[in-house]
Fold Jg5473 protein.
Amino acid sequence: MGPIRCMIVISLAYTVLGTKYSKVPTAFKAYNLTPDVIPTAPENFLNVYYPTAEVCLGDVISQTQTLVKPKIGFNFKPGVNYTIIIIARLTRHDPLVLPDPDVPSAQAPVLRSYLNWMQVDACASTPGLLAGTTIADYMTINPYPGSGYHRGTVLCYEQTRPLDLGAIARKRLAVRRYRFDVVAFATTYGLTLVGGNFFRVAVPAVYDEYYCNNCPTCLTDVYVK
């Protein structure tokens, strides 16, 4: 199954941020993000920009493209705070799909739903872009070689009030990242899902070959004869 395609022109991105997009629920269902990660898909498209990749509903990007945390774009309301969460998971029903929700592999997702990033009390610092308090520092999507595709699911929740940072800190989410229950977290803090997006990452079983093909400075041809 290939990604459901769409096009976002970066220079015009702020004119389409947060728009209702019929393909979002369809894509979330097609890749088992509903109900694997969340019971109901968001209606709005969330813009996710990595330095060398722009994400659109199931795009396959390389692991190296996820090394730096992405920028998030949306039609954020003035004076409203938001929570941004990235979860990795593997889709057990589709051998080609894996978000880190099914770690370590699609065949044995015993550590499913890994929390890769969380920001809370985020508000628009520049038009369409967020700055907030980091609860769990960003960690790249890092599949085991040959473990299948991992889905990186990016979710945006609207808050009704600033969150209790002390209570969240006691959960030690920066350390206890495995088996993160995003639905329970959203329910506890009264969060409303308003936008989403996702991508897929995989590292082939032939690990060295993958990095040589994706690294312009690879010296294998020089040192290995």
User: Anything to note?
Assistant: DSSP finds six helices and nine strands in the chain. The radius of gyration is 17 Å. The chain has one domain: 10-223. The mean pLDDT is 74.
